[in-house]
Amino acid sequence: MGVEVGGFFGLILLILNVWAIVKVAQSAASTGSKVLWIVLILLLPVFGLIMWFLFGPRG
User: Fold this and answer.
1) Are 17 and 49 contacting, i.e. CB atoms less than 8 angstroms apart?
2) 31-43 and 45-55 helices, crossing angle to 10°
């Protein structure tokens, strides 16, 4: 039972995920932390984005 995301919502989710990955890559976090967050965002697009927004590296 998977979650299918398509159409306009899918496009918005893709843009937000790319933005989150860029922000993670630009952050001052350690390399291991960056890799962990990027993998989480890529493997779990909706949940990973929410988790990054709440708990991810800042700055």
Assistant:
1) yes
2) 140
Contact 46, 3 (CB under 8 A): yes
Q: What is the per-residue pLDDT across 4-55, written as a single tens digit (0 to 9) for each?
A: 667 888 889 999 999 999 999 999 889 999 999 999 999 998 898 899 889 8
Domain assignments of the chain as residue spans, ordered by start: 28-59
Other CB atoms closer than 10 Å to residue 12's CB: what's the count? 11
Residues 6+ apart with CB under 8 A from 42: 17, 21, 48
